[in-house]
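dumping this here so i dont lose it
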């Protein structure tokens, strides 16, 4: 089909209607969340327990809806958010503007060097600034790629302060949330929200986050903590104990992290890599990486979530993150990896990840050979199975 004179990759998101229904993906309507209420306030539900959101399978509307609720709640007094990619028609920023109108303190850490979205980010940053928000632009040498939201609210009982957070691998962007497969955590866990507050304090005061027990934050400790976790698996393997790492990222490029994975493989650690983009580690090399395998997955949704899994002697650790294992992410960006502490939610993430590990329809290996099912082997398309799994979790509509 004839197009304009010049094209770029963004044009792939907007192909015209060819009138060929047989070329279209079957409809996967957005699913309601199984534990968040469909109507009414969200904050009480978040106060009771953690909730995981899996866009685009589940509706992303819970995020702007939470912000609208905070904007209208007289007891919410502050909202802090990181904005990396802002939608052209942003319900997120419109909710922040409403919050400012209602007298809330709003802090927005805005990244101006978000490729393709600089114009939109500048436009909304100016709108927020004029409305009275504390808009913080990151310094040229340090991008903010972390996706964080923090709300502070006075209790009805005794005027004490409660905090709520949303941590995600994906942007605060309703448009990309329909295309990018991500995971986000709603939590009121006191330890987690206190550490999220430390990250925002860094942007406001310059005080580096310290004494973090749960969050892994770049450029301050993410690399060091990941190397420590890899070394712990290697030590277990040398003792003859089960040791494994599962790493899902967009890209694996950092020489130091690759060297650590090679060393862990040589110690006997089983390492599975799920890499959508750049992979600079060579798996399956005798004497170097024979315990390392790699696959990647390209399907109707862009695999955008980063997940780090460490065996940890049977007490498995699962982190969701915004950070690839690239030098720029580990050393020159503010990134956050957060643990999934709730047992049921951790099992949920692992199940979705296990479906991706079994894909034999849309997966390829390190050499870009498709991993097709053997004769008699069942066909496994991970994203299709993930949708069906989450559909079973979704509450049924009342007749």
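and the seq i came up w/
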């Amino acid at each position: 089909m004839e197009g304009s004179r010049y094209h770029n990759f963004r044009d792939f998101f907007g192909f015209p209607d060819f009138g060929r229904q047989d070329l279209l993906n079957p409809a996967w309507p957005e699913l309601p969340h199984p534990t968040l209420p469909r109507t009414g306030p969200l904050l009480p539900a978040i106060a009771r327990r953690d909730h995981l959101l899996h866009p685009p399978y589940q509706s992303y509307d819970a995020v702007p809806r939470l912000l609208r609720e905070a904007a209208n709640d007289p007891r919410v007094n502050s909202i802090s958010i990181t904005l990396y990619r802002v939608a052209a028609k942003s319900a997120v920023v419109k909710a922040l503007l409403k919050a400012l109108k209602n007298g809330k303190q709003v802090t927005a850490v805005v990244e101006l060097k978000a490729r393709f979205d600089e114009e939109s980010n500048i436009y909304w940053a100016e709108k927020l600034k004029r409305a009275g928000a504390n808009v913080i632009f990151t310094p040229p040498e340090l991008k903010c790629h972390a996706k964080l939201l923090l709300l502070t609210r006075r209790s009805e009982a005794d005027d004490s302060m409660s905090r709520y957070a949303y941590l995600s691998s994906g942007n605060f962007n309703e448009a990309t949330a329909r295309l990018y497969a991500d995971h986000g955590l709603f939590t009121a866990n006191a330890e987690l929200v206190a550490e999220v507050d430390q990250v925002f304090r860094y942007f406001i005061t310059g005080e580096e986050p310290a004494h973090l027990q749960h969050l892994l934050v770049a450029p301050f400790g993410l690399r060091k903590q990941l190397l420590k976790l890899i070394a712990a698996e290697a030590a277990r393997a040398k003792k003859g104990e089960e040791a494994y790492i599962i790493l899902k990222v967009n890209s694996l490029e950092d020489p130091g992290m690759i060297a650590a994975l090679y060393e862990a493989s040589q110690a006997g650690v089983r390492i599975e890599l799920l890499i959508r983009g750049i992979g600079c580690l060579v798996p399956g090399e005798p004497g170097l990486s024979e315990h390392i395998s790699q696959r990647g997955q390209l399907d109707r949704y862009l695999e955008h979530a980063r997940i780090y899994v460490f065996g940890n002697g049977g007490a498995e650790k699962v982190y969701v993150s915004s950070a690839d294992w690239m030098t720029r992410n580990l050393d020159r960006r503010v990134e956050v990896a957060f643990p999934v502490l709730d047992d049921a939610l951790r099992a949920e993430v692992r199940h979705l990840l296990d479906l991706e590990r079994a894909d034999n329809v849309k997966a390829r290996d390190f050499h870009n050979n498709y991993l097709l099912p053997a004769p008699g082997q069942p066909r496994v398309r991970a994203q299709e199975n993930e949708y069906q799994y989450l559909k079973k979790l979704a509450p049924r509509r009342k007749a």
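The longest strand covers residues 76-83.
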